[in-house]
Design a protein that fits this description.
Blueprint: E1 2-6, H1 10-16, H2 20-27, E2 32-36, E3 50-51, E4 61-62, H3 64-76, E5 84-93, H4 96-103, E6 107-112, H5 120-126, E7 129-132, H6 142-153, H7 164-167, E8 186-187, E9 190-191, H8 201-219, H9 221-225, H10 231-248
Parallel strand pairs: 1-2, 1-6, 5-6, 5-7
Antiparallel strand pairs: 3-4, 8-9
Helix pairs in contact: 4-6, 8-10
Length: about 250
């Protein structure tokens, strides 16, 4: 998969894409990340990429022409079609479902805004999707682009040493992940639940599913509200709720 990023800070994009799982995916040829700087396509000695907004007000707005020229160069670098995604606090919230859809594509172009944003005429003409990583404002879209690159890159086949890791992540099945433990078995901070070192893989799977359902109920009940749980999952969740309430002497929801 190839990811092109339109950004005023290409060094940041290249540095973040060189680390960890994404860096390994790039080394293995599973992922290619290329950054394009609008300043390289701006006119004049100052390579200006922004101007004051019409109507007055603080801040600057990114100019149409450098952005269009940069986007054209990104498209020309590879003949395969690619949706153009703007990282913006006004966009659709990024979800794992969206990440999986992006990860299945051969190409993706990410556009990172700066200052007060982009000229709206460019957005309307050239942007296919606006995407947000949360309800807060950052200095620019680069951190959001890095999030998308990481989330998409780790889903490329062969990026993870164990393919099951991705399948068991939080949100892959709509639920939060279960808790995990490693050595030592006993520690001053507590002991590993006995089921996890008992060797009964069916019991382990059942415990993990119950914990996943329970954590989602406690921390993200909105996710559970969107799901249709089958009889087995409802039973597991009820077991977790009874145990949780009994441990705290409660008869009500958290």
């Amino acid at each position: 998969m190839r990811l092109d990023v339109v950004t005023l800070f290409p060094d940041f994009i290249h540095a973040s894409a060189a680390l960890g799982v994404v860096g390994r995916a790039c080394e293995r040829g599973l992922l290619e990340v290329v950054a394009h700087n609008p300043r390289d396509f701006a006119a004049g000695n100052y390579r200006r990429v922004d101007e004051r907004p019409f109507g007055g007000g603080p801040g600057m707005v990114m100019l149409i022409d450098p952005l269009r020229a940069t986007l054209a160069a990104a498209r020309a670098a590879d003949p395969r079609p690619a949706p153009v995604v703007l990282l913006s606090p006004q966009g659709e919230r990024l979800t794992q479902r969206r990440v999986r859809a992006f990860a299945a594509m051969p190409r993706l172009i990410l556009v990172c805004g700066r200052y007060e944003g982009l000229d709206e005429r460019f957005v309307e003409a050239e942007i296919d999707h606006e995407l947000s990583i949360g309800d807060y404002v950052l200095s620019g879209g680069e951190l959001g682009a890095a999030v998308v690159i990481d989330a998409v890159g780790r889903l490329q086949e062969g990026a993870l040493n164990d393919a099951e890791s991705a399948a068991q992540d939080s949100f892959e099945d709509g639920l939060l992940d279960c808790p995990h433990y490693t050595r030592p078995e006993r520690h001053e901070l507590g002991e590993v639940p006995a089921v996890l070192h008992g060797g009964d893989h069916r019991a382990i799977a059942r415990w993990r599913r119950r914990q996943s359902l329970g954590r989602t109920w406690l921390r993200r009940p909105d996710l559970l509200a969107r799901m249709q749980l089958d009889r087995v999952d409802r039973t597991l969740l009820e077991e977790f709720q009874r145990e949780w309430r009994a441990a705290r002497g409660r008869d009500t929801n958290p």
